[in-house]
DNA sequence: GTAAAGAGAACGAACATTCTTTTTCTAAGA
DNA sequence: TCTTAGAAAAAGAATGTTCGTTCTCTTTAC
């Protein structure tokens, strides 16, 4: 019997997933060949197929980790935040570790995941679940702000949450595609928008 | 000599591009095979390759049309808008025909274009050009609003434009991936955000 | 010593593209 | 105006390559 220590087993799996992730970010899921992944991971086909049963399996695992990253960022927003913050912008644009402060590579992978979710029903379902959950978290924060009079209370919190979620997604798009998405600039723009003088309906 | 009327020639080209577009929206650029396109267009390989010299050529043409659609939407914002509008939200979310009121399919294709732009330098460049142009248009509108006192003037217009552009992109993501992105809901949330009471720095 | 782990050749299917053949349509000639 | 030649347009088989995956053999680690 020569079963290797399972820590080594998981290290190999990690090695493959990391290599695949780099390939997928660079070329997308379907323009990346298995040969690309094998070369990047510096492993043979025989080795890789011991850990994943197919390319689709690797894609699914990569996408799942990307979604987990997003989910955990929103969870952190939920409870780790001090309850007395005064500006909702900081909720979404907080510097420490929300989705927005992730790397450009994470943003690029997420764009690939969106694209893949359009053709894979199972990934699409997972994505919707994660984002629905996140919207709930943000909605709760909005509601708390409304209770404190920091936001008008006559608008459903979900409506505001939708806008904030779109801001996050849009920020990710711009960071992924255009490279520089500066959260300081962004926050400044948001503050300007939010301190617009009250307007009469036209 | 038997050269067909060029209107028929362009109709064939359209037929192919329309079919390809449907395929690309459904499966992405690289998970779509030429056979898929041929079947969808109800044409033979020989026919299609008379109008496009390669699959990449079809991809490039499809992406270019998608970008043209976006560009024209922003151009329309620029000059067709009444100059006396009172709410900047309407700039981005206007109902008539800006990018946001496009179909879900257009949004889905745009996600595929973003994804492809990550691996194709030439498409990436074109995309950046179009979006830089659009940002300029939005920036000009923001500046005009600042001049009228509808927005704080102590923040660079570009910062606000960045936020609004991200909103557009985010709206497109949500419409593409989650299906229902209701512009009425969205506008309601935006208005709530923008009429937030002025806040003291914490 | 033995079975797991890995390497790398081998395989069939699917791919984009080209080549050959057939069909279709235009334009010149009777 | 009808015919017909001839080229453009389209079809579909053919081709060579690349793909994902499997199979066999070797190495490694317990």
Write a structural description.
The structure is a homodimer of 202-residue chains. With 202 residues, chain A is mainly alpha-helical. Helix content of chain A is 71%, strand content 0%. Chain A contains 9 helices and no strands. Chain A has helices spanning 6-27, 34-41, 45-51, 55-80, 88-93, 104-117, 121-147, 157-178, 183-194. Chains A and B meet through helix 1, helix 6, helix 7, helix 8 and helix 9 of A and helix 1, helix 6, helix 7, helix 8 and helix 9 of B. Chain B binds a DNA duplex (30 and 30 nucleotides) through helix 3.
The best one-word shape of chain A is: elongated
**Mean pLDDT metric of chain A:** 85
Largest sheet of chain A: none
Number of helices of chain A: 9
Q: What's the quaternary structure here?
A: homodimer
End-to-end gap of chain A: 80 Å
Structural class of chain A: mainly alpha
Helical percentage of chain A: over 70%
Protein traits:
elongated, DNA-binding, homodimer, 202 residues, mainly alpha
Compose a concise summary of this entry.
The structure is a homodimer. Chain A has helices at about 5-25, 35-40, 45-50, 55-80, 90-95, 105-115, 120-145, 155-180, 185-195. By secondary structure, chain A is mostly helical.
Secondary structure topology:
The structure is a homodimer of 202-residue chains.
Chain A lengths: L5 H22 L6 H8 L3 H7 L3 H26 L7 H6 L10 H14 L3 H27 L9 H22 L4 H12 L8
Helix pairs in contact in A: 1-2, 4-7, 6-7, 6-8, 7-8
The structure holds a DNA duplex (30 and 30 nucleotides).
């Amino acid at each position: 019997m020569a079963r290797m220590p399972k820590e080594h087993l998981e290290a190999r799996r990690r090695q493959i997933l990391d290599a695949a992730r780099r390939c997928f970010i660079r070329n997308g899921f379907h323009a990346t060949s298995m040969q690309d992944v094998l070369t990047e991971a510096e492993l043979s086909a025989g080795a890789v197929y011991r850990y994943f049963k197919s390319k689709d399996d690797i894609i699914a695992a990569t996408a799942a980790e990307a979604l987990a990253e997003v989910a955990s960022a929103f969870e952190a927003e939920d409870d780790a935040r001090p309850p007395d913050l005064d500006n909702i912008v900081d909720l979404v644009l907080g510097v420490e570790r929300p989705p927005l402060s992730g790397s450009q590579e994470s943003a690029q992978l997420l764009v690939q995941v969106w694209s893949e979710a359009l053709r894979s029903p199972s990934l699409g379902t997972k994505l919707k679940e994660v984002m629905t959950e996140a919207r709930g978290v943000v909605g709760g924060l909005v509601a708390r702000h409304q209770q404190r009079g920091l936001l008008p209370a006559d608008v459903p919190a979900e409506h505001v949450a939708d806008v904030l979620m779109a801001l996050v997604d849009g920020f990710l798009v711009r960071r992924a595609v255009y490279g520089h998405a500066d959260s300081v600039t962004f926050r400044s723009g948001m503050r300007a928008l939010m301190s617009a003088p009250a307007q009469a309906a036209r």
